Amino acid sequence: KSAFNALLKTLEEPPPKVVFLFATTELSKIPETILSRCQCFEFKPLSHQQIIKQLEYICEQENILSDGLSLEEIAKAGAGSMRDAQSLLDQVIAYCGKKIKSNSVEEILGIVGKQTLEKFINYLIKKDSANLIISVQEIISAGKDLNFFCRDLAEYIRNLMMVKLSNKPEILLDLEICNLKVLQDQAQAFHLDDLQQMFTVLARTELEMKRSPLSHIIFEMSV
């Protein structure tokens, strides 16, 4: 607070030809005395398609061959940030060279493919606890990121719910990554309340994993 108060005099009487730019992710923490002297612009995350389009442009300019799924996975891992998505693309190019394939992307980024997610949900439908835990151990052994897996699993649960709720789920799903027929078959095994409860558990689990050095144990117990 004292630092902002010290800045206030400079903001009220700025030096000639000087423009101040402030950036924050927590606007609520900025005092009103500062905000009232600023123009505020809120930047939103880029859409998934905007990021993919830019990644496709970069690959085209650099003569890099990539399949649609690999760029989908990179854009998804970027989570709305073009900078992060481009950094991930750089990592993948450094590893793959001029030809990018989805299995290489999954290996580098530590994410699991849709086959692993489908198999995991099938174990859940069968209430096969033993194979669920074995699957978690296999994911860890393969060097995959459990935080990514938890997030992707939550999204998969969301997709199952969209299939149950909508007459036209294809407009709500990314069919590059999803197998609609598999989702429709699996969704029949769940009640909407089950899916909502599982999503809530996974959302809470992801937060707890970020705060704990025992993330794998937290995830196992949640499963």
Give a quick summary of the entry.
With 223 residues, this protein is mainly α. The chain has helices at 2-12, 32-35, 48-61, 68-78, 82-96, 102-109, 114-125, 129-141, 146-165, 180-187, 192-211, 215-222, and strands at residues 65-66, 99-100. α4 (68-78) packs across α5, α4 packs parallel to α6 (102-109) and α9 (146-165) packs across α10 (180-187).
Question: Any descriptors?
Answer:
mainly alpha, 223 residues, 2 strands, two-stranded parallel ribbon, globular
Describe the protein in words:
- This protein is mainly alpha-helical and 223 residues long.
- The chain is 65% helix and 2% strand.
- It contains twelve helices and two strands; from the N terminus they run αααβααβααααααα.
- The protein has helices at residues 2-12, 32-35, 48-61, 68-78, 82-96, 102-109, 114-125, 129-141, 146-165, 180-187, 192-211, 215-222, and strands spanning 65-66, 99-100.
- Strands 1-2 form a two-stranded parallel sheet.
- Helix 9 crosses helix 10, helix 9 packs antiparallel against helix 11 (192-211) and helix 11 packs antiparallel against helix 12 (215-222).
- The relative contact order is 0.08.
